[in-house]
């Protein structure tokens, strides 16, 4: 029996090299777990039938002495990342039968190392949402409490890892979609610096905000995956190389932690979340970190700015789903009606809401009032962070304002759902990296619900995030 509960990438890699178990055995263990739990949790939309064949290839590679760190490591892949020859539906009816013709660079880099792709993970349709309730294929339940959501939009990826249905997963994050489900499911999630991981082959949501990143059980595992998937890519002109940002070493000093106290005292944060956050701050102090109060004058506008800019980009990116070139096609009474009928039937309510909002903020007369103004404030936010990082190395907040909420409790009120993103959207607007780390539990109705803290660093300073995250988790 392989103890997958306590398994990490590092441990699995060592065991595979030593011959404690084979990739086939490891993969079989995960497949059995998926078979047992997925019918209820719905983390996977599809489990690949060739997983064991991939495993055998990885075993051959290990036998030949050619193992890399991810050889034989079983992954769940979010349903908006393309894998050649496989379906990528973005959890939408629009792409229900869409089969990818090429592979996303980030996935390709896993494949080149011999990782085992177990299947595609559920998500909010086109990554729009924070609970996976917007999936056209049903909600993903939280493995810690089946009456609650797993978060979103990468809820399937986080739940897959949390239920031991994968050792790690890839997700995407436009405004928190890797970090918030990680917080809800008790996993580690990294939203990398904008441009550090290629977006080639990720179905676009908001192109100036999207990043692909890992969801794992430990900070070290997130670091391992980030080091494999990052780096310049000729297929994504916004990618940067490792040398883009100066990295001053800490030379034995610990990074200084900043807390945006005024922002945290504005109200609206669950009491248990706040108490847990304060405990986490104490823990950092006890570990010898210097903690400072900082001010981010414009952070209160983040959510509003995000919910103007993101729909604007969404409306542009979604224009390609017209029912003609690919995806669902439905006949209307004439050609123009074809577009309406295909989009009405292919796209869910939240996606259509965002297309309309985005089209509105970009339209003549409103462009200056909304889109332009939001862009100006986005620049002010960049300045706020630049200033803050002159005095501190990382910024600490909770990851989400609440623990995992009940299925159905926010679906009638989009604003309530959007408020869940209060702490996460800023990193995407500014482009800086942010790491979600589990920080404890709160008991609700007899169930232990995970809580999380978010550590944010300056552009290119994932190394600082990993350093601070590992110390916090005693890794
Ligand atoms: N929950 C946020 C939203 O609904 C973030 C989504 C994401 O990061 N893809 O937009």
Topology, element by element:
Blueprint: H1 9-18, H2 23-41, E1 44-47, H3 51-63, E2 74-78, H4 105-112, E3 116-121, E4 141-142, E5 145-149, H5 155-162, E6 168-173, H6 179-185, E7 188-191, E8 211-216, H7 219-229, E9 257-259, H8 261-264, H9 271-286, E10 291-293, H10 302-317, H11 335-346, H12 349-362, H13 367-391, E11 394-398, H14 414-419, H15 425-430, E12 434-444, E13 447-457, H16 462-472
Parallel strand pairs: 2-3, 2-6, 9-10, 9-11
Antiparallel strand pairs: 1-3, 4-5, 6-8, 7-8, 7-12, 11-13, 12-13
Helix pairs in contact: 2-3, 5-6, 7-16, 10-12, 10-13
The protein binds glutamine (GLN).
Glutamine binds at residues 127-130, 153, 173-177, 205, 310, 421.
What would you note in describing this structure?
This protein has 475 residues and is an alpha/beta fold. The protein is 39% helix and 15% strand. The chain has 16 helices and 13 strands. The strands form two sheets. Strands 1-3-2-6-8-7-12-13-11-9-10 form an eleven-stranded mixed β-sheet, sandwiched between helices. Helix 7 packs antiparallel against helix 16 and helix 10 packs across helix 13. The longest helix is centred in the last third of the chain and has 25 residues. The mean pLDDT is 97. The structure holds glutamine. The site of glutamine has 13 residues, from loops.
């Amino acid at each position: 029996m392989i103890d997958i509960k306590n398994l990490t990438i590092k441990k699995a890699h060592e065991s595979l090299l030593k011959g404690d178990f084979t990739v086939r055995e490891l993969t079989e263990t995960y497949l059995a777990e998926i078979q047992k739990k997925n019918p209820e949790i719905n983390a996977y939309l599809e489990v690949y039938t060739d997983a064991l064949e991939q495993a055998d290839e990885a075993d051959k590679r290990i036998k030949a002495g050619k193992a890399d760190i991810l050889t034989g490591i079983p992954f769940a892949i979010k349903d908006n990342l393309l894998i050649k020859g496989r379906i990528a539906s973005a959890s939408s009816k629009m792409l229900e039968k869409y089969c990818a013709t090429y592979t996303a660079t980030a996935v390709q880099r896993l494949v080149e190392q011999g990782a085992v792709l177990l299947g595609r993970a559920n998500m909010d349709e086109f990554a729009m949402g924070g609970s996976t309730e917007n999936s056209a294929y049903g909600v993903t339940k939280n493995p810690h409490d089946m009456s609650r959501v797993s978060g979103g939009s990468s809820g399937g990826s986080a739940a897959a890892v949390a239920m031991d249905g994968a050792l790690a997963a890839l997700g995407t994050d436009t405004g928190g979609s890797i970090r918030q489900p990680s917080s809800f499911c008790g996993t580690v999630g990294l939203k990398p610096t904008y441009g550090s991981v290629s977006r080639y082959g990720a179905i676009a949501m908001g192109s100036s905000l999207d990043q692909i990143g890992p969801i794992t059980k430990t900070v070290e595992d997130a670091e391992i995956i980030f080091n494999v998937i990052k780096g310049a890519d000729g297929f994504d002109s916004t990618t940067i190389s490792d040398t883009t940002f100066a990295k001053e070493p800490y030379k034995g000093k610990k990074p200084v932690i900043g807390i945006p106290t005024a922002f945290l005292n504005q109200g609206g944060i669950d009491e248990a979340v706040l108490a847990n956050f304060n405990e986490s701050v104490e823990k950092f102090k006890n570990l010898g970190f210097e903690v400072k109060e900082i001010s981010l004058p414009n952070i209160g506008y983040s959510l509003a700015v995000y919910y103007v800019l993101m729909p604007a980009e969404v409306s542009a990116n979604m224009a390609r789903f017209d029912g003609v070139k690919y995806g669902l096609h439905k006949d209307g009474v004439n050609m123009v009606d074809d577009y309406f009928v295909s989009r009405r039937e292919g796209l869910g309510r939240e996606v259509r809401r965002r297309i309309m909002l985005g089209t509105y903020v970009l339209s003549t007369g409103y462009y200056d009032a909304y889109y332009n103004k939001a862009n100006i404030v986005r620049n002010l936010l960049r300045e706020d962070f630049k200033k803050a990082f002159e005095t501190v190395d990382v910024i600490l907040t909770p990851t989400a304002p609440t623990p995992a909420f009940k299925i159905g409790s926010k679906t009638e009120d989009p604003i309530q759902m959007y408020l869940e993103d209060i702490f996460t959207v800023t990193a995407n607007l500014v482009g800086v990296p942010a790491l979600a780390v589990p920080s404890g539990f709160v008991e609700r109705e007899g169930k232990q619900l995970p809580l999380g803290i978010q550590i944010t660093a300056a552009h290119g300073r994932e190394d600082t995030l990993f350093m601070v995250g590992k110390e916090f988790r005693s890794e």
